[in-house]
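Hi everyone, sorry if this is the wrong subforum. Our group has a chain we'd like a structural model of before ordering constructs, and none of us has done structure prediction before. Sequence below.
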Amino acid sequence: MILVTGGAGFIGSNFVLDWLAGGGEPVVNVDKLTYAGNLANLASLAGDARHRFVQADIGDQAAMEAILAEHRPRALVHFAAESHVDRSIHGPGEFVQTNIVGTFRLLEAARGHWQALPDAEKETFRFLHVSTDEVYGSLSDTDPAFSETTPYAPNSPYSASKAASDHLVRAYHHTYGLPTITTNCSNNYGPYQFPEKLVPLMIANALEGRPLPVYGDGRQVRDWLYVGDHCEAIRMVLAKGRTGEVYNIGGNAEMRNLEVVHALCDTLQALRPREGGYRGLVTYVADRPGHDRRYAIDARKVRAGLGWTPRETFESGIGRTVRWYLDNAAWVAQVRSGEYRHWIDKNYGKRT
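Answer:
Right subforum, don't worry. Here is the predicted structure as tokens:
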């Protein structure tokens, strides 16, 4: 079996669902169930003996050691992280605790587990660490895309905490021989994404006729990756990736934020027409501090070495995503209550 951390979050839950749908071996799914962890994402696995959920904190080393000893996974796929830049600006301490300290304690637990394995199992064990392109910093419009050798230059508390976790993973391979692999992905979108992020926030607000808040001039550039494509890439890296290596995973879809919002508006208009359309809801708000201008991923290494390329174009992926949110209004309503409302007021209330 494999062990997945953060498997009730956005990317983690998509990975667990995708893994089991593809006939993968059983999954032990560990999640702390903070605000973005949602067991409703995994409702379709109810009664599936291949899925074992354990509520635990990766920062609790003793708990992770016990889970590893009980289940003896042949691989650990580490998604668990605080991942929202805006939240890291308001409260960086949680990011340091989860992304740095939590990853360190998880590495310690994994190292002890791996060292105690028989030689044959030790040889095949993998620790796959899922990270972000934001560790590389910001690009100008003319800079080449991030490669796996781009120097780290994180600019937010979030990206700095992920950069630190990447360095720890690298160090545990170099120093102890722990068979680690790191992936750095671009902006994910798709089903089950907590609606503080750009794509689901815009969909939810548009359907309610609320303003669509765009930071600054809206010309920041990101590479957009459909979450299902990301899950497929992680499967390939886990199966064929070389230990000690880093693989950048991107969607080949550089878009300005305003272009993304306009595409969402136009897709919604085609599927659920609104008098006057949705573009008129776009509202420019004060930019966030230190907002990186451009990210771009050079994914030639994973394409040439492992044979992975994204299946979805931006247009097809956005179409699938919008349809999912339209078809799953109950899920959206459930997560857009309580703490979420408080966060939206805190982050956007003074930006107009």
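For your construct planning: The domain at 2-189+226-252+295-313 is CATH 3.40.50.720 (Rossmann fold). The longest strand covers residues 126-132.
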